[in-house]
Every structure is written in structure tokens, then in C-alpha cells.
Amino acid sequence: MAEPVAGPPAAPAAGRLRSVAGSWDTIVLAALVLVVVVGAAAIDGVASPRFWRFVTLEAIPIALIALPMTLVVITGEIDLSVASVLGLSCVAVGQLWASGVTSLPLVIVLTLLLGAALGAVNGVFVTVFGLPSLAVTIGTLALYRGLASVVLGDRAVANYPQAWTRNAIAPIPGLTIPWMILVVAALAVAFAVVLHATPIGRGLYAMGNNAEAARFAGVSVGRTKFWLFVATGAMSALAGVFWTLRFASARADNGTGLELAVVAAVLLGGVSIFGGRGGLVGVLGAVALLGTLRNALQLASVPENTLTIVTGSLLIASVVGPNAVGIARDRLRRRRPATARTSPDPSVAD
């Protein structure tokens, strides 16, 4: 009796290895490692714990907003009002505190509710009135920032309890990294579970690929998008609370321009601007990459204008890059002979 001929076991493993190596997430993480290694070798101070403390502090608000923004963009929408929501939330913290609300936990809860309400306004315009999210959130970007300026003007509220301002940026015991990064990590796990391991997440990808087909498949497109905008507003408000306590100052211009960093991180992380594709691993890697690169260049005394050019260039690369990688992978797949794409049946005998 002939022995069965086993197929080469290395082929599937090699295919998976090529898939991982060619994924955009891997490219982003490899770029992060490269920036860290080159920066540590070429710029004094990059390898110091103090440098990584500042990188983490700057990355926390961006990561908090990027988590829900990832889900929003996967559905084919976008929210450009997030930095203005952050700024108005800072103003809310300052105004409530200055008006005599001396319980900071209550101030924080009220601010988060305000952020959720601001996000709900975006959600109503997009899902009820059917307006494009790009136009709506450009409008509310200006509206919310204007409201912040009207309420607080050019004043700053700064006399918060030192216990709160110190604890907001306190390090993890034995490390220099602030403990708030643990909050970001816990939220990232929660968002990742929703996106990658639940029917809700599958519905988000379906909406991004074809909203009408998703609706016929039973996905509540309007309701889901509405709550995503609410979540984005609430997380932007949480970032505003952290921003206020970190700098011990509430100003109307807090977080101005931060939406560019958030959108750059989401797109550089591999989320398609057209929706239907992307994940949180690449986005969080992109947040770390942008923060490390920006702080390293600042340490090297690179002018602010140049940093803006670098961010804009990475934003363009984030749109072009994943598409280029996808095209290259498709071409390589088509060039492989049919025998290489088909695994032999291990049950075939001599």
C-alpha cells in the first residue's frame, strides 16, 4: 500500500509570513522602530526616559480621539470637529470650576456629557438630515471653536487643585511613563474587541464598503453612525479634560489644529479614507510614530514650519501608501503560478 504524499507544510506558513510582512500595519511598526533606532543614534536625548515621557504625554489626547475616529472613518465618514470639541470641553472645565463647581469629578462628568452632546449634533446632521460629514464637521469645527472663544475669550482658568494636576501626569510607579497611558490601553482593547470581534465591527466594515447593502443585510446604518459621532465627541471631551489638567490651564485655543494629527494618525495607520478597511493596531502604531518623529525633530531644533510640512507629507503618504501596497500585493499574487497558489491535497497517494 502506497504511503500518502504529504504536501509541503512550509507553503501555507510562508504565505502567512508574506501576508504579515506585506501588511500596512507591519510597515508602520517597522517605520516606528526605524525612527526610534535612527533617532536614538543621531539625536542626543532621544534614548532618555524624559523624552519618552513627553512623547507619551503628547500622544495620549491624540490616541484617545483616534480610537473612535478609526471607527468613524471605517464607516466612510469623518469628524473634523474633534479639536474644537476638545477646546470647548477645556472651556467647560474652566468655566464650571470658575463659577463655583468645586467638585472636579462632577465637572468631568458634565464635560463628558457636553462632549457627547456636541458629537450628537454632528450625528443628527449626518444621519437624520443626510448631510455629508465632511461639510458638517467643518462647520461645527468653526462653530464649537467660536463658542469657546465667546465663553472664555482670551482668559485662562488655571487655579485647579494641585493634587489633580499632578496626578493627571503622574508616572507609573518605577517608570517615567504617565499612568494615563494605561487608560488609553484599556480603551484601545475595548475598541479593538468591538471592531474586530463583534457583529457591530463587521457591520462597520460593511457600511464602509456599501452602506446600502449593509442596510439590506439588517445593519442599522443611521443609528450606528449616530452613536459613533456621540462616542467621538465624548472621547474628545475626555482628551480635553486631560489637556486641561496636564497644562493646569483652560483656554479657548487649547488643541487648535489637533484634528490634523488625529486624521494623519488614522490614515497613516492604514484606515482607508473611503471606508471599509483598516484596524486599530496600525492606527496606534501611527500615533506613536508621529509623536516620536515630531518630538525627535523638535529635539534636533527643526523649525515648526518644517514639522508641519513633515506631518502633511505623512498625511499624503498615508493615503497613497496603503493603496500602493495593495496594488503591489495583487500584482505579485497574479504573477505567482497556479501551482504555487494551490496547496496539494495530502490525501493523494502514489
Structure characteristics:
350 residues; 15 helices; disordered N terminus; mainly alpha
Question: What can you tell me about this protein's structure?
Answer:
The structure is a single chain. This protein is mainly alpha-helical and 350 residues long. The protein has helices spanning 10-21, 24-42, 49-74, 82-98, 104-127, 133-152, 162-168, 180-197, 199-209, 211-216, 221-247, 258-268, 280-299, 304-335, 338-341. The radius of gyration is 23 Å and the shape is globular.
Show the helix and strand layout.
Elements: H1 10-21, H2 24-42, H3 49-74, H4 82-98, H5 104-127, H6 133-152, H7 162-168, H8 180-197, H9 199-209, H10 211-216, H11 221-247, H12 258-268, H13 280-299, H14 304-335, H15 338-341
Helix pairs in contact: 2-13, 3-8, 3-9, 3-11, 3-12, 3-13, 4-5, 4-6, 4-11, 5-6, 5-11, 7-11, 8-9, 12-13, 12-14
